[in-house]
Write a structure and sequence with these properties.
Layout: E1 11-15, H1 18-21, H2 43-49, H3 72-86, E2 90-94, H4 97-100, H5 111-126, E3 130-136, H6 142-146, H7 155-171, E4 177-181, H8 191-195, H9 202-230, E5 235-241, E6 245-247, H10 252-275, H11 282-288, H12 299-305, E7 310-314, E8 319-321, H13 355-369, E9 373-377, H14 395-413, E10 418-421, E11 444-446, E12 458-460, H15 462-472
Parallel strand pairs: 1-2, 1-10, 2-3, 3-4, 4-5, 5-7, 6-8, 7-9, 9-10
Antiparallel strand pairs: 11-12
Helix pairs in contact: 3-5, 7-9, 9-12, 13-14
């Protein structure tokens, strides 16, 4: 096998989100956020994507696994020690907005929430693990949804800027790497997760989503500007969910359709964040879809001045497109589906496995933007079995990750500037899309089941030891 040459300062680690692992949803002065009212199970997406989601907790009808997560709030020291044992030199995490501002619109932050993250950062520093912090990761305070309508409301820009400024001031000596919004380009597909509102109708969804995105672009740019002022030497990035888009065949109609889908999904947000302006194709798209943005004086200047230092991304799968597809041809995927690709296998959840797509992704992004890239999510959600001797032999996960790390190595050889790699769900946590625990990604098994039962005991999977060797050899040893 080829040995790949990763940079000496390459960042190896893992990634999680506060709402999916912390638990303690009513402790430490935390207010309710969006994730707290999202039901668990395969019904989750159906419920939250239907117009008119009511933001109520109904424990007689649903389970709410995010309320407990995997209890990282109380067990973070042990979990971070396990990350250190694997050799992590970075850890991508998020801060729960409603731990800092329980309602989201307060002037004064919740000190107990700030102190919790101080303790987490101090624990990471003990092991020389560099935090990479997402400011907003699918957990807008519920009050900002019910009282203001989420990101459709321009006032939320100010609340976010105040929140970001509070974080930068508090943690300026502890955090160098920041991300503004998680998977920002997925917002038009599931606006509730990314933009904090349930569409009133399918007809209004596009207008409201693109207006909400505009508000997030302004907020992100303001955060970048403030972060650079308050933390000299800080690196602030955007975060995209990226899926390279293939044409189903060489029919020019399908090729053109795939190009249009590629630009809209993968480049619209990236262009604004990195180039500091809306892409040329945006005006035609707005016109053809009846979208009229309220862009106020100064907005475009703020966006121009607040460009990011690097692009972080999640990569799980590619996307294959056909102009006139039938319902039977549609595949499954992370926010996006497309049609089934006959050349690819798929995970237990129908997500197609395409490591070459990661190499394509990295080359496409670097060719277009010429800024450093950071893969902050990638992984395989799968059913794991605990054997009678307590072992968990997840060779399928090792195979998946190995092939994607090989693709990273090839991209670096291609000339791509790659900063780091933090596979998703380095410890088992609650799935964002289904609220399940059985959809496991981690190197560390957590004894918690979909019905909420379990001891929360942590167990090292076979992949734990494999990834430890990968990190120790800076990506040279990929065989297990």
């Amino acid at each position: 096998m080829s040995k790949y040459s990763f940079p000496k300062d390459f960042l190896w680690g893992g990634a999680t989100a506060a709402n999916q692992l912390e638990g303690a949803y009513q402790e430490g002065g935390k207010g309710l956020n969006l994730a707290d009212v999202m039901p668990g199970g395969k019904v989750r997406l159906k419920v939250i994507m239907e117009p008119g989601f009511d933001y109520k907790i109904d424990k007689e009808k649903y389970v709410y696994p995010n309320h407990d997560g995997i209890d990282f709030y109380h067990r973070y020291k042990g979990d971070i020690a396990l990350f250190a044992e694997m050799g992590f030199n970075t850890y991508r995490m998020s801060i729960a907005w409603s731990r800092i501002f329980p309602k989201g619109d307060e002037l004064e932050p919740n000190e107990e929430g700030l102190a919790f993250y101080d303790r987490v950062f101090d624990e990471l520093k003990k092991y020389n693990i560099e935090p990479v912090v997402t400011i907003s990761h699918y957990e807008i305070p519920l009050h900002l949804i019910t009282e203001y309508g989420g990101w459709r409301n321009r006032k939320v820009i100010g609340f976010f800027e105040h929140y970001a400024r509070t974080l930068f001031n508090r943690y300026k000596n502890k955090v160098k790497y920041w991300l503004t919004f998680n998977e920002i380009n997925g917002a038009t597909h599931i606006p509730l997760l990314g933009l904090g509102f349930s569409p009133e109708s399918k007809e209004t969804q596009l207008q409201d989503s693109f207006q909400g995105l505009h508000h997030q672009f302004v907020a992100s740019a303001l955060a970048v500007k403030v972060g650079h002022e308050l933390i000299p030497g800080s690196q602030i990035g955007c975060m995209l969910v990226y899926a390279p888009t293939y044409s189903y065949d060489s029919n020019p109609e399908n090729v053109m359709h795939a190009l249009q889908e590629q630009r809209l999904f993968n480049n619209y947000c990236g262009d604004v964040h990195v180039r500091g302006a809306y892409p040329a194709f945006a005006k035609r798209y707005w016109k053809e879809n009846g979208i009229t943005l309220d862009i106020q004086d100064g907005d475009l200047e703020i966006i121009k001045e607040g460009t990011v230092d690097f692009i972080s991304l999640s990569y799980y799968m590619s996307r294959t497109e056909k102009k006139n597809k039938t319902p039977e041809e549609v595949g499954q995927g992370n926010l996006i589906g497309g049609v089934k690709n006959p050349f690819l296998s798929a995970s237990d959840w129908g997500w197609e496995i395409d490591p070459t797509g990661l190499r394509i992704t990295l080359n496409q992004l670097y060719d277009r933007y010429q800024v450093p890239l950071f893969i902050v999510e990638n992984g395989l959600g799968a059913y794991d079995k605990v054997e009678e001797d307590g072992s968990i032999n997840d060779d399928y996960r090792i195979d998946y990750l190995r092939s994607h790390i090989q693709a990273m190595g090839e991209a670096i050889e291609d000339g791509v500037e790659l900063m780091g790699y933090t596979p998703w769900g380095c410890i088992d946590l609650v799935s964002a899309s289904t609220g399940e625990m059985s959809k496991r990604y981690g190197f560390i098994y957590v004894d918690k089941q979909d019905d909420g039962s379990g001891t929360l005991e942590r167990k090292k999977k076979k992949s734990f030891f494999w990834y430890k060797d990968v990190i120790a050899t800076n990506g040279e040893k990929l065989e297990n």
